[in-house]
Amino acid sequence: MTQSQQAAAAAADAEARPRIDPATVVGWGVDADPDNDPTWPMRDRSKDDGPGMNWTPPETQHTGVEILQSVEYPRRPAVVGQSTPPSGVSGVIRRAAFPFSESQWGHWLLLMLADRVNAVEGVIDDLLRGRAPNPLVEMGVVKRYRSRESAIATAAVLGLVAVAVVTVARRRR
After folding, report:
1. I want to staple 110 with a disulfide (CB 3.0 to 4.6 A). Which of 14, 97, 103, 151 is the partner?
2. Is the pLDDT of residue 114 over 70?
3. Are 117 and 90 in contact (CB under 8 A)?
4. For 140-166, how does the pLDDT look when each residue is reduced to its tens digit (9 = 90+)?
5. Which helix (H) or strand (E) holds 164?
6. C-beta of residue 34 within 8 angstroms of C-beta of residue 49
7. What is the DSSP string of 38-55?
8. CA–CA distance, 91 with 65 (Å, rounded to integer)
9. Is 121 helix (H, G, I), strand (E, B) or coil?
10. Pairwise CA distance, residues 1 & 117, whole Å
11. Which residues fall within 8 angstroms of residue 135, CB to CB, at 6 or more apart?
């Protein structure tokens, strides 16, 4: 694709995006007045290509997974993470968080709850696949190269906890 074709495609993409009305944004243009510029005298405005930012936004990334988006932004950023799409109970909780504004507690509390639920889902998923979780390595307490020793230590601690639970249960009878 030639440079002129790229410029034409970028211009068409920019026209397709919804425009933001500056009158609806609190504080829009507060630094537009050069006499009220907080970067003066460090910024050399003579090198600017006129007022504002003059650049062509990058093309948005095409994804094959669900991307959750904040209600504050009319369009997705150019690059998004897609390694862990929302799924399971934690995904339902995450979807419930995104109709809230980022300035509301409900948004962040639901996302934190979804993180905790996702951790439990991960442990359950490991157990269903026949792998025992190794929290000492997964939490970074023990280095990866010493994971065999930490797995043995984790199994020993779990064994001691199980023996203690059985002992306490028998003494109560």
Report:
1. 97
2. yes
3. yes
4. 777 666 667 767 777 788 889 999 999
5. helix 147-172
6. no
7. TTTTTS-GGGSSSSS---
8. 12
9. helix
10. 46
11. 141, 154
Please report, as a single letter, which amino acid is at residue 7: A
Per-residue b/e over 62-93, b at no fewer than 16 CB within 10 Å? eeeeeeeeeeeeeeeeeeeeeeeebebebbeb
Q: At what angle do helices 105-128 and 88-97 cross, to 10 degrees?
A: 170
Q: Going along 6-142, which residue ranges are E strands?
A: none
- What is the three-class DSSP state of 146? helix
- For the chain, the straight-line distance linking the first and the last C-alpha, in angstroms and rounded, comes to 80
For residue 155, the one-letter residue type is A
CA–CA separation, 155 vs 79, rounded Å? Answer: 42
Strand ranges for 44-129 from DSSP E: none
Q: State yes or no: pLDDT of 9 exceeds 70.
A: no
